[in-house]
Amino acid sequence: MDVPSLQWRSSYESGHAAIDGQHRHLFALGRKLVDEVAANRPVGALVEVLSRNLVAHFEAEERLLAEAGFPGTVEHAREHARIVRDVRQLGARMAENPTLSSDAVEKLVFGVIAAHVLGSDPMFFHYLRARA
Known about the structure:
Elements lengths: L16 H22 L5 H25 L4 H24 L5 H19 L1 H10 L1
Helix pairs in contact: 1-2, 1-4, 2-3, 3-4
């Protein structure tokens, strides 16, 4: 697994301290999840922690976007809902099968955390910076 790609870089920053701190924390949780799965350790509780942190982050991000009048807020919130659903489904799958393949976890970590933070979120970073 390509864990180094989950290393936070300053180039990922939005310019909003709280959002950046949350993103850094999500990256750290993602790295920990990948490490734990690779070591064949149980990760059900960690998936729950990740899920709670994602929900809290998404709520904060959606409030910020709505307050700023970001035109893509509704679409962005839909993406957040899909991500939370995917994380919860992974948690349920892991509860049923604690030895779930690392491929499923890798897809979550890289396809959800990194792809969302590095793919979708920058669209509103530019909008917020222009408004500052």
